Amino acid sequence: MSRPGFTGEACLAPTAVKGPTTMLAKLYDRLASLTFGLWLIGGVCLFLAVGSFSGGGAEGSSINDLPLFQWLAETPLVVSWWLWAAIALLAILAMNTVLCSIESVRMKYRRGNFLVLIAPQVMHAGFLLIVLAHLFSARGGYKQVMPIREGGVIMGPDGSRLQVANISAAMGPMGFPVDYSAELRTITGGRQDVATISPNHPYFSKGAGIYLKEVAVEPYRAALIEIHREPGAGVALAGALLFTVGNVVLLAVRRGR
Amino acid sequence: MKWLLIASIVLYLFGAHKRTLFLAGLAAELAYLAVRGAALGRLPLIGPHDTLVFFSASVAVMAFPFCFASTLTGSRRFSWGAGLLAGLFALLALPFPSFAMPLPPVLRTFWFELHVALAFFAYALFGVGGLLGAMFLFGRERPLLDLQYRASLVGYSFFSASMVAGGIWGYYAWGTYWLWTPKELWTSILWLFYSLYLHLRLKGARWDGVVAWGGIAGFAVALFTYLGVSMLMKSSHSF
Known about the structure:
Distance between the termini of chain B: 22 Å
Strand content of chain A: 15-25%
Number of helices of chain B: 8
Shape of chain A: elongated
Order of helices and strands of chain A: HHHHHEEEEEEEEH
Order of helices and strands of chain B: HHHHHHHH
Strand order of the largest sheet of chain A: 1-8-7-6
Shape of chain B: globular
Largest sheet of chain A: 4 strands, antiparallel
Oligomer: heterodimer
Radius of gyration of chain A: 25 Å
Helix content of chain A: 40-55%
Radius of gyration of chain B: 18 Å
Helix content of chain B: over 70%
Number of helices of chain A: 6
């Protein structure tokens, strides 16, 4: 027996509308259905699983070197079909999430605990923001990797000239670097600024990060520098925080139930 | 100090039906991890040996409070099953050598340790959920399914937090919170699967059997995400 307010089709209110609007109402009912949402999640899982075994989702694939939409445009469908399918289902799932949230709030409003009602919707909002963040990054992401000798100059994201200096590395007993860093020197208006970059400590400028990926000390000192712009990062963080807040509230209100 | 690990395996496998022996096994394993951690100067979270031991201890830590749940107080099956699970993974860790290499610089951050530790707590709770699902399928006692839901919900919360920590770490380490790698794909699959599982419960009591099986299947997905991807696929997340 279904619990009140937790029916299988949680989002569905019986539609009494007849005539030309019936089809639209049916479509809405379908789009706002929990069962449909579950099938969509299952479908996304399936296509991602297929992708993990295909060349397109492999670690060495060019998918990580280009903004996603550019990769999709340039890659043959025979390689990228699983991702197209996953994105299509994800787009419908995002719509399903919005509609289910609206219907859930509409049906349970003024019934029961406000926090119980709102916490899952806050999590849904976090999930949607994370999807949106991926969309921003897929469209406007940028990545450039360049090897450079000590003393060499790179162009910063804002067009400024950055000199890579003072490359240093501490080697471990097995010959691998256990720590390394480099300095980035900028000269603007006769004033010199110095920033140190190392693993996990990039230098941020104009919405892009400058990362020190690797260093070599022999036969000469050189660094592998990466400039990376991830336009969705802020939105992803906001979504993650929203999701976490909703999750913590949900745990608190369901404690002991 | 491997004798501590061996002692914990013996206690888990042959004594876990008694809560005191289960606790003794957990204490021995935690002591082993503490010794490893002190020797390494960090949490032992790298390589198959350390991760399997950490996972085994996580299973025991997460399962132990469930032994006191009113539904399970009269039953020895749960603590025996949890002990079997923890003992099995500790046993799997034994053949692998315990390395003492310095960490690569990119792994030396709080976000990495948080990311990995939370993921193992989540996997452990998914294991507890799977165990409770199996018990439900044998006995059809509804409270077992409620416990499974609780274990999975808390596990899902840990796992979500782990993904957030991993995203923050990735952004500072590689400039992106997301990479298209098999591990990250399977991490997303696992997260989506448990999103599906948690929503499945809303379908009502007629779906109880499916929910129970969902908890078991979820643990299988978690195991593939942890072990399968590392063994079968090329990924930067491999041990």
